[in-house]
Amino acid sequence: TEIDSISSFISTSQKELEEISSRRTIADFKNAQTVTDALQARLAKLKDSPQANNIGVTTGYSYLNKLIHGFQPGQLIILAARPGVGKTAFGLNVCYNAAVKEYPVAYFSLEMTAEELMTRVVATVAQINQEKIKYGTGNEKERLAIKQACDRIARLPLYIDDTAGIRIIDLVAKTRKLKNEVPNLGLVVVDYIGLVRYDGKMSNNDNRQMIIQETSQELKRLALELQIAIICVAQLNRNVEQRGGNPMLSDLRESGSLEQDADVVLLMSGLNQKRTGKSNYGSKDGELTEESRLSVLQTELSKLGPNIQLVNIDVAKNRAGQIGSVYLLFKKDFGSFIEPDAAFIEQIKNYRGGNNQ
Q1: 22 contacts: CB under 8 Å, gap ≥ 6
Q2: CA-based end-to-end distance of the chain
Q3: What backbone phi and psi angles, to 5 degrees, belong to 23?
Q4: Which of 196, 221, 325, 347 keeps 20 to 30 A from 188, CA to CA?
Q5: What would the DSSP string read from start to end of 63-131?
Q6: Are 228 and 217 in contact (CB under 8 A)?
Q7: Rounded CA gap, 258 and 275, in Å?
Q8: pLDDT value at position 70?
Q9: Residue 181 is inside which H or E element, if any?
Q10: Which residues contact 172 (CB under 8 A, 6 or more apart)?
């Protein structure tokens, strides 16, 4: 068809332009003097900056910022978990936290509409149950809180694309266009990478793993080209549930290339996920059973309010810094993640692995 011909032409042209650009830049070497001068100039600028300890796009969570120093320009970040842990909710929380700090952010949603996503963001800001917003069942006070949340969010540099089954070539083109329109675009979230269509030159025999690999490499190139951070939401395979214990890099679903291409990998796991091994803190009572640990944690969580879950975010890979893990509390009704205070961490640290710095 005509559309197919246009798509093929665009794809082929883009590939040829990339090859031409690659050949043209081979001779563009930078000598050591130029690079070290630029490095020293950047360090001098950062010396007295309040952002010296977090020079990337903020996550909104101090312990996580301390580990990864925010999301850096050019980084590809993988955010992975099993279904139901809160990947999308966390991605939206991060976007909101960044936008509040005046970092423009873009969210590609391949599973939910823009209105569904905004319902979640409004619930987080207003601290109103998502169902009351969705079905309009809130009381007068709650409706006022919803309106105030909408007014606040409307002023933020937050952009949503809800094209279902978007092709990688279109995702790249839209991101480039937005970057041209919003030069200080700092963060892009793709939710999730397994649903991005790849229309490159592949035979019918190419498997899903190869498609994910090509997609992740394309997104990494885009992050470097535009000097933005890109977060890709991904799934962990069922090995986590079958094996028990903490998620591992090898649990990334469909492709080991995600681990290879990513600069940072964040693995999320919930309270009810069976965990093995010793606590990172060194439990005082090594004889506690898994059931005992869960019971203690549930008791502590119940004191904070209804329907609150403990989520562990493991920084399993960090090419430019530390690895480790942090706790967050997931208020599921509101779709919001908050940091537990030091006293709560002290209460639970002997019962579950993790290491809020």
Answers
A1: none
A2: 57
A3: -65, -35
A4: 325
A5: HHHHHH-SBPTT-EEEEEE-TTS-HHHHHHHHHHHHHHTT--EEEEESSS-HHHHHHHHHHHHHT--HH
A6: no
A7: 24
A8: 94
A9: helix 168-181
A10: 218, 222
Question: How many Å apart are CA 71 and CA 66, to the nearest integer?
Answer: 11
For residue 261, CA distances in Å to 11, 105, 190, 223 come to: 22, 22, 15, 11
Structure tokens at 295: 């019971």
Distance, in Å, from the CA atom of 177 to the CA atom of 248, rounded to the nearest integer, reads 36
Q: What is the pLDDT of residue 341?
A: 85
* Residues of the chain falling short of pLDDT 50: 1, 24-25, 27, 52, 205, 273-287, 353-354
Phi, psi (5° rounding) for residue 268?
-100, 140
Q: Quick one: tokens of 356?
A: 């809020």
Which pLDDT does position 279 carry in this prediction? 38
Angle between helices 168-181 and 2-24 (to 10 degrees): 60
Contact 176, 106 (CB under 8 A): no
Contact 75, 230 (CB under 8 A): yes
Q: Which two tokens stand for residue 109?
A: 């949603």
pLDDT at 356: 61
Amino acid at 111: E
